[in-house]
Amino acid sequence: MDLRERLTTSKEDFDDIVLGRKLGANSNISSIIHMLRDIAGQVEQGGVTGDMGRQTAFALTEYFDEMRGDSSIAVRNAIGRLMEPVRAEGLSGREFASRLVESCDAYEYESAHWNEKIVACAREVLKDVGTLMVYDYSSTVNAVLQDAEDWGRDIRVYIPESRTLDGGMPFIRNHAGSNLHFSLIPDCAMAYYVVLCDAALVGVETFCGDGGLYNTTGSLSLGILCREYGVPFYGITQFLKMDRRLSEQTPKKLEEYDMSQVLGVAGVQVEAGLDVNCVGIELVPPKYITGYMTEMGYLTPTQAAGMPSLN
């Protein structure tokens, strides 16, 4: 089944995930919701049968669960929530489409409510901060910066390039013309600049059961630097990203990716057998984390580990 060809208005969303054009679990979930709305709309308008729409929706979500679910529990949990209302057998095409749209509406409303609480929490925790370091793009962290911008805060924000994913530039593009003051720096300069910061922020790819987190490679380096220099290191996340199976003692198996483009050796003749693979995410144990800003308020790693997960 060519899933992309089954879509009409959301092919770009499909490509955004497959080609890695948009970073972050929330962006991926938003694209999946757009695709599910597209499928529901086709059923409602009679472009495809209910059976065909149902088949496509489940095949699509299973495809993206396999692609992104292992690395991002948030994507897996969101897909489960989105598809649960349409798993019942015997739904007519119209019932299927209606339930799918209602499920997308409910998820978006709930997620927006969570994010409002996270931003409010961050506003309070960071109220006296004048200088931040923010590592790797996260839509939730971006929302915190947007809130600071909207409130007219005078903050210097150091953005390491996050070279493995080019995860620094999306912040710069999203805040062009901002009253915030941005500095884009090489990853290798984090130690020099972090001592100038009042706090460091990272998003969370996966939230571990012991209060640790997985995030883009480089996050652990920043956590170690923050601990060494006494700079608070905060994770910003929804509890949807909690995977209680994971901890420092029971880590996830990490994939390595070809970094030849990142390292500048793509297409260049190099020594045979040169290894250019590297992990894309890494574990930051709870001992390096000061606290979390969540929809349940501010929590230390110990407090977070004791909270009920949403999955």
TrEMBL record:
Keyword Protein biosynthesis: yes
Keywords of the record: Initiation factor, Protein biosynthesis
Top-level taxon in the UniProt lineage: Bacteria
InterPro entries named among the record's database cross-references: eIF2B_alpha/beta/delta, IF-2B-related, IF_2B-like_C, NagB/RpiA_transferase-like
Molecular function in Gene Ontology: guanyl-nucleotide exchange factor activity; translation initiation factor activity
Pfam families tied to this protein: IF-2B (PF01008)
Disulfide bond in keyword set: no
PANTHER family listed in its UniProt record: TRANSLATION INITIATION FACTOR EIF-2B SUBUNIT ALPHA
Family: Belongs to the eIF-2B alpha/beta/delta subunits family.
Name assigned to this protein: Initiation factor 2 subunit family protein
Organism the protein comes from: Hungatella hathewayi WAL-18680
Lineage of the species this protein comes from: Bacteria, Bacillati, Bacillota, Clostridia, Lachnospirales
